[in-house]
Amino acid sequence: MDEEPPPYLRIVTELRRRIATGRLRPGDRVPSTRQITREWNVAMATATKALATLQQEGLVRPVPGVGTVVADAGTGAAPSRRPAPELSEERIVRAAIAIADAEGLATLTMRRIATSLGTSVMALYRYVSGRDELVTLMADRVLADGWLPEPQPPGWRACLEWSARRQWALYRRHPWLAQAVSFTRPMATPQAMAQGEWGMRAVDGLGLDPVTMVHIYVTVANYVHGTAAHLEAEAEAVQQTGTTDDEWLESTVLPQMGEFPLLSRIPPDSLDLNTLFEFGLQRLLDGVATLIASVRAGSDTDVDRSH
């Protein structure tokens, strides 16, 4: 009796078939490692080996920011004959971001990155010391995309709104980012420092001491971070179930709300995460406005007493 082929070869055979029959066309994304683990009930290492085999055969190729796609028709094994682009810290960081965006931070390993770049694990260590440093570099690179305008918008509130919404947009674009950012052990990276300085400048000149200024910025940033903390888990749930947040709300939550008079009066779109974020942000900034007003009132009282 013939022995059953190893699991990774069964996956390779099936994906070859899909490519040959046109079910997967040139440029189409092939299943990610996470999708392969779910579809074939295999370990992540097996999924990674299957994609690596297809890449070695020239059937698929990694595309930073997209994932692994079917190679152009007729290229055969040509990709492996072309000299690979030179490795650099920037290439490694961008590849790692693409993997984390598509598959989650938990799947990010040095071996997974090496496979996507068509190189060895040891080659990566010439540019980064390990996964922890790499994740820090990834976060700093992503934060660089959240540019902050110069000159700042007029008024402290407009500045803090801009900063908070830019951070929120980054967390939504990169759900893993909230897991990489810590407020108990903050990152001492150029972008993190620049954003903190920008936020403190928003409330400078209002009579606040530096400690209060940094507390205001960190409180707002931590609110955004806390709201985004479960975005990666929610993105994973959507991938695993195929059910969007709105569909889950309609099928699971809304039917139960009808039994409660007050809850049943809530429009479904008011539970949208962006709506909740904006509501909380405005109430938080209302509190900051009260603090600033009280500090100014205290300063005016001190001036009156001096006369």
Automatic annotation (TrEMBL):
Residues 109-128 bind DNA. Signal peptide: none annotated. Keywords: DNA-binding, Transcription, Transcription regulation. Residues 86-146 form the HTH tetR-type domain. Residues 5-73 form the HTH gntR-type domain. This is TetR/AcrR family transcriptional regulator C-terminal domain-containing protein. It comes from Microtetraspora malaysiensis.
